[in-house]
Write a structure and sequence with these properties.
Beta-Lactamase; four-stranded antiparallel sheet; transmembrane; five-stranded antiparallel sheet; transmembrane helix; 245 residues; alpha+beta; 5 helices
Length: 245
């Protein structure tokens, strides 16, 4: 059989050009993916740092409440004064509470959150798992976002169980609680994320819910080609997802 040399030459040339172009494409695609990944990692470090700063404000506020409570022999008559001082300079914190025996007894500021007064955290089936987890861990637990009963805003709730020593035995006194609005956490971050060319989604943690609650999400987030990152919080984990626009 006679071989048509021009056709063979054409096919060989075509294949060489094709695979050369494919190699270039794969090289630049890999380079682009690496650049996107590096950019996402750097952005994520900044985002996590800011989130941790907000969380640290909550931790500091909770611990300050517990310290002042113990210094005053568990007398809460000056609670409003403590809360006012504790909240100074902590822009992300919306509310401070104390819940003796698991029942909300003190709130600051009062007016916006007064509907929560008397709320029994240990009997409310929508809240009890998170409250019981805090007691079990004997440490701060961050839960949320959840819709608040007092104003239907979405917030992150941080609780720390307080134990009082009576006759050399520790007895559960109640909870020191801090409420942080979702807007207070994500407000300063959304523009930074979008300016870097990404959409995002942040999922929270709530032991009282079957699925992870949605903390916040940008308008055009689709979930395609996601880059996922863990955000560790006390006794829980959030999932932060970035997506290139």
């Amino acid at each position: 059989m006679k071989i048509n040399k021009p056709i063979v030459t054409f096919v060989i040339t075509f294949l060489i050009v094709f695979f050369t172009l494919l190699s270039f494409y794969m090289f630049y695609k890999e380079k682009e993916d690496k650049e996107i990944s590096n950019k996402a990692n750097l952005l994520m470090l900044n985002v996590v740092n800011e989130i941790q700063t907000k969380i640290s404000q909550g931790v500091t506020a909770i611990d300050s409440q517990v310290l002042l409570l113990k210094q005053n022999n568990y007398n809460t008559k000056d609670f409003d004064k403590w809360a006012f001082e504790i909240m100074k300079g902590k822009d992300s914190i919306a509310c401070l509470q104390l819940a003796k025996d698991g029942i909300v007894t003190n709130i600051y500021p009062y007016e916006e959150h007064k509907i929560a007064m008397g709320h029994d955290l240990l009997k409310d089936k929508r809240r009890d798992d998170g409250a019981l987890l805090a007691i079990e861990k004997r440490d701060i637990t961050f839960v949320g976002p959840i819709k608040l009963i007092q104003n239907e805003k979405y917030a992150l709730i941080a609780r720390k169980p307080v134990f009082q020593e009576i006759n050399s035995k520790e007895k559960f006194w109640g909870f020191s609680t801090v409420i942080i609005y979702v807007d207070g956490i994500m407000k300063s971050l959304e523009d930074k994320i979008k300016d870097n060319g990404f959409e995002y989604q942040l999922e929270g943690f709530n032991p009282d819910a079957k699925n992870r609650p949605l903390f916040s999400k940008s308008d055009y987030f689709t979930g395609k080609n996601p880059l996922e990152f863990d955000v560790n919080v006390p006794n829980g984990k959030w999932i932060f997802t970035l997506e290139k626009k």
